[in-house]
Structure formats: C-alpha cells, structure tokens
Write a structure and sequence with these properties.
Layout (H helix, E strand, L loop, with lengths): L7 E8 L5 H14 L5 E8 L8 H9 L4 H7 L10 H5 L2 E5 L9 H9 L8 H8 L1 H10 L7 E5 H6 L1 H10 L4 E5 L9 E3 L5 H9 L4 E6 L3 E10 L4 E2 L3 E4 L7 H6 L4 E3 L6 H17 L4 E10 L5 E7 L9 H8 L4 H16 L1
Parallel strand pairs: 1-2, 1-3
Antiparallel strand pairs: 4-7, 5-6, 5-7, 8-9, 8-10, 8-12, 10-11, 12-13
The structure holds adenosine-5'-diphosphate and magnesium ion.
The site of magnesium ion (MG) has 2 residues, from loops.
C-alpha cells in the first residue's frame, strides 16, 4: 500500500454536519499548516453542513483562505457530492478533524473500517461510546471510576412518567446540569439552580435528541488531560479551563473567548499525577486508541476528581488544549501529528 519512496498521502477531512463545523475548519487549517510536507502529501477533504463532500480543489481553497467563519462556510456550500470511496484509491491514511455527530461518533470511522483504510483516532465503538454521555457514564461506573450521579431521561419517560422522573432528578440535589446525551459544544445544556426551571431545561435538551442526561452539578475546577497512544497510552500534563461564564457554555467556547486556558493547570504534584492516572484509566476503560482528551472535575470542597466526559477528536487549533498540553509535555505540534499518523498505521497493521 505505502511505497517506501513516496510521501504518505494524508486525507485531512474537516467541516461536517455538526454545530462544530467552524471550529473543525480552523483546526484543520492548523493541522494542514503543521504536517511535514517532506513526509506527507495533504489531500484536503471538506464536508459541508449538509453532508456533501466538496471536491478536493474547493476543500484546499477553504483551508488556504484565512477569512472569518462565514467565509469558510460559504466557500464550500452547494458543492457537488464527492464519492467518499475516492479515499480508498487516493490516500494512505485518513485524518478526520470532525467534531460531534457524523465525525466523532463512530460513523465516519465505520466508513474507514469498511475501506480498510488506516485512520487517526478511536475506532467506531470507542467513538460511539464517548459521544454518548450516558453510555460513557455507565461504563465508567462499572469500572469503578467516579462520575457525577445522574438520571437518564428520554422523550418517552418524560411524557409517561413525568412526576417520577422529576422527583428522581431533584433527588440528585441542586444545581443540576441537563444535557443532550449525544452532542458537544455545550449546545442544549442548561444549569438548573431552581427546581421550577427543570422542566424547560429537559424540554430544551430533548429538542436536540432522544436522550438526555440530568446530572448533579459539581462545584469544581475543570481539568483536562490529553492522552495519546494505542496499547501503551501516555497522558500529558493536565490543563485547566476557567470558564468566563457561569459554566463553560457555547459562547464561552467559540464566541466571546472569555474563558482562560491554563496550561499547565496550577495543581499540586499529587493532584496532577492523580489526574493523569485517572485519564489513562478512563482511556483504557472506554477502549480509546490514537488520541482522546479526558475532561475531569476537581471538586472544590472534597478535592475529589470526577470524570466529566471524553472527547475523541479534541480541538486542534493552534491554541487548543490538546496540542498545547502535548507541547508542554515535550511533543511539539508537528511531532504530535507524526505520532498520530504513526499510531494510525500501527493500529491498522
Ligand atoms: N455535572 C456538572 N457540574 C458542573 N458543571 C458542569 C457539569 N456538567 C457540565 N458542566 C459544565 O458544562 C460544560 C459543558 O458540559 P459537557 O458535559 O462538557 O458538554 P459538552 O460535550 O458540550 O462539552 C462543562 O465544561 C462545565 O462547565
Ligand atoms: Mg465538554
């Protein structure tokens, strides 16, 4: 498959049918800029918001432009469909930089498996599990890892056993966090500090998907660890997100940039090492490979760590936490990319 004397052809797949389309474009631009051109030939592949694959020329132009969000989107709207089977013939390894549904959830990973194509990141199962906050939590609990107590609600139980569901949620104690089970970017998430707001919060989360997680709110610092590897994964030094809002919501993440990313996180050395160990446990419990960012809560009162969630395709912009943490751990951005490609090929073998 891979001739020794040619550069590896890396398909950089970005955009996609999710709310995180724009950040994906920005991430892909950084990755394209940092992949070593002596070693790799980059084949750009853009997916628009409707799921259409742009032709590679258009995709390359989207990456080459440096305009704002709107430009990026308009640049490849309405393009023709590209048969994704082209991947099989033209590339050696796929590097999906897609967030959320149809990118981070195992669907495109399934396509790569069908094509027998090496790809960066987790396999379909681990991707699907990590995309689903309820499934993730069940597996963590089964493995003895701590995650905030929760109640699962779906459209059916909410309409049929409304009072019972409400009571079980309120038993968790206020404040509560109400989230769509399978989404990212804080979309559809509410913090509920008053029991009268619970119903609306659940309705709002249900409007984004069939299943909802209602979780005990933890008064905590938000600690993130980057994990890298297949059989023998490594954990980075931890970082910390300090939200600029009441919690780390959509505006904070993408619009007004009021949050602070502290890398490394100002932690005691025993706290940092506990965070790294937990992150590695979480990674292997959920069957991750390649990479993932494990997000933890460090509860202020108790000093306990709780696992919040796992992102199998974390942000990859030049200022994103995942590459920043590896940089601090001794792996500069372009070497991190080399390692991710190497891990993809290793796993495929
Ligand atoms: N149980 C919780 N306790 C405290 N804050 C929470 C809790 N759950 C979520 N949050 C806040 O909401 C943000 C987004 O929630 P998260 O579960 O990470 O969803 P997403 O996948 O959208 O990032 C978190 O970064 C945190 O600020
Ligand atoms: Mg999160």
């Amino acid at each position: 498959m891979v001739a020794s004397n040619h550069r590896l052809r890396v398909a950089l797949i970005f955009g996609g049918r999710s709310g995180e389309h724009d950040v994906s474009v920005v991430s892909a631009r950084s990755v394209a800029g940092a992949l070593d051109r002596q070693r790799y030939e980059v084949v750009s592949m853009a997916i628009d918001r409707d799921g259409r694959w742009a032709d590679p020329g258009t995709a390359a132009r989207v990456l080459a432009e440096s305009g704002d969000r709107t430009d990026q989107v308009l640049a490849f709207e309405g393009r023709s469909k590209l048969d994704p089977r082209i991947l099989e013939e033209t590339v050696d390894v796929a590097f999906p930089i897609l967030h959320g549904p149809f990118g981070e959830d195992g669907t495109i990973q399934g396509l790569f498996e069908m094509l027998d194509l090496p790809y960066v990141g987790c396999d379909p199962t681990a991707s699907a599990v990590c995309m689903d906050k309820a499934l993730t939590k069940r597996l963590l609990v089964e493995a003895g890892l701590k995650t905030p107590a929760w109640v699962e609600v779906n459209r059916r139980s909410w309409s049929d056993t409304h009072d019972d569901v409400r009571a079980r949620c309120l038993d968790l104690g206020l404040p509560l966090f109400v989230k769509p089970a399978r989404l990212g970017s804080s979309v559809g998430i509410s913090r509920v500090a008053d029991s009268t707001a619970l119903g609306d919060a659940i309705e709002e989360a249900l409007s984004h998907g069939e299943n909802v997680v209602v979780e005990r709110g933890v008064d905590a610092r938000e600690i993130e660890v980057a994990v890298l590897g297949n059989q023998l994964p490594r954990a980075s030094v931890p970082g910390e997100v300090v939200p600029g809002h009441e919690f780390y919501d959509y505006e904070d993440k993408y619009l007004d940039n009021t949050c602070d990313l502290l890398a490394p996180a100002p932690l005691e050395s025993d706290e940092a090492s506990a965070a790294r160990h937990i992150a590695l446990d979480v990674y292997s419990t959920l069957g991750c490979a390649g990479m993932a960012r494990v997000d933890l809560f460090l509860e202020r009162n108790s000093g306990d760590f709780w696992v919040n969630e796992v992102n199998t395709i974390p942000g990859f912009t030049s200022i994103s936490m995942y590459p920043k943490l590896w940089q601090l751990t001794g792996l500069p951005y372009s070497e991190l990319l080399d390692e991710l490609v190497r891990l993809a090929l290793e796993r495929h073998r």
